[in-house]
Structures are given as structure tokens and as C-alpha cells.
Amino acid sequence: MVSVISDIGNGRSINQDFTGYFEENEIRFYAIADGMGGHNAGEIASEIAIKTTIEVIRSNLNTEDLEELMRNAISEANKKIYNLSNKDKALKGMGTTITTCLIKDNKAVIANVGDSSCIAIEGYNIFKITRDHSLVQELIDSGDITEEEAQNHPNKNIITRALGTNASVEVDIFILNPCEVERFILCTDGLTNKVKLSEILEIVYNNDEEESCKKLVELSKYKGSSDNISVIVFEGVRKYDRNYTRE
């Protein structure tokens, strides 16, 4: 099961987030992006990122090196955004985050650029798989601020890595066994800036995928998120093959 919601949020006139996924036999792919730039530019960047990445993945489903496939797909998206940004003055400087998850052959390959997140739940445990490419994350890593101080830091929205801002991009890759994860959550920072991991766990643990998405977005808006909010909730090992896989 999978459910997706992308909400404009409380304070924006346009939704610059974009989501996408496909499920074909034993291959599943999910992606989320949070655009940045002037009016419409961020929206264009995030759409290009998701559509290009999906196109490259779907065209190379027989590839055995899934990590390289993911890097190539995201790099191709980066190139398209960067080139378009340099050709059109109205789109100059546009960029986007991207976070993806490809599940195939009992392997989950997660990739990210920027500060959109991939989160995993197993039982009543939750952990964030990706690490934000952001100024605040760098301050946390250096010990200059604490996790608590980061929650309300004035530079919370400054990201240090994005698609489309340079001719090439570094992609972080994480490998998991999907059989060890009951639910994955992909989300933009419109959710994580306001909703704690413990709150995400409580909602997703007690609801199906559709209700989880709805309640996560509702909670983020209730807590005052002015940003776009996008969430994808999907199974790790799917219900119909869970008992078999775990034997």
C-alpha cells in the first residue's frame, strides 16, 4: 500500500513540492522533491527532478547496480535543471531537493540531495535514514547547536546541496533491507520542521497509509507550518508477502 499527499500549506501561494512513484511487479520506486527559486521556478525544478528520475529508473529496470542507477538518474535530473536554468533568465538559480527510495530484490536503495527526508518505522521504533544537507545540520554536527536549538533556528531553511545549482551534484546513498522496515515515510521539510519523529511514529503506527498522510499534514498545518507539505507513506515489506519474507 502507498498513499501520497502534497498540500500547499498555510502560507504559500504556490506548491513547489512534487511527488511521484511507480510499482511494477517486484520493483517499486518513490520520490519527493521540494523546489526553490522565484515564482514558478521551484515548481518547475521539482517536477523535472521527479519526472526525469522516474524516466531513467523505468528505462533501466534490468540494471543490477541499483546504487549506480540511482546516482545516474538523479545526476541526469540535475543536468536538465541546471541547463534550463542557464538558458532561461526567468528560471535562473532554480533548484530542488530530492529524496528517493527504490525497492528491488530485497534491497531498498535510498538517495537524497537537500533536506527532504526518508524515515523508517519498524515495530514501535522510528529512525531517520537520510541526513539533511543544510546549514543547521552542519551546526549540529560541529557541536555549535543542539538538536533542540535547531528546531527554531533562524537559518533552518538554508540548504547546502540541491539539484540544479551546479553542473554536477553529489548524491548520498543508503542501503536497507526492506524486510526490516514496516513503513517508509518520504517527506519535505514542511512536515519535519513542525512535527517531531515521535509524533510521526504515533500517527503512522496507529493508522493505515492514507490516514497517516492525512493526519501528518493536518498536524503540521495545525502546528503552524507555512511551507508546502508533502508526504508519501508506503510499506517496506508488503503485507501479502511479509510472513514469507521473514521466515
From TrEMBL:
GO terms for molecular function: protein serine/threonine phosphatase activity. Its EC number is 3.1.3.16. Coiled coil: none annotated. InterPro entries: PP2C, PPM-type-like_dom_sf, PPM-type_phosphatase-like_dom. Residues 1-236 form the PPM-type phosphatase domain. It is an enzyme of class 3 (hydrolase). SUPFAM superfamilies: PP2C-like. PROSITE patterns: PPM_2. The keyword Hydrolase applies. Keywords: Hydrolase. It holds the Pfam family PP2C_2. This is Serine/threonine phosphatase stp. It comes from Clostridium tepidiprofundi DSM 19306. The lineage of its organism: Bacteria, Bacillati, Bacillota, Clostridia, Eubacteriales.
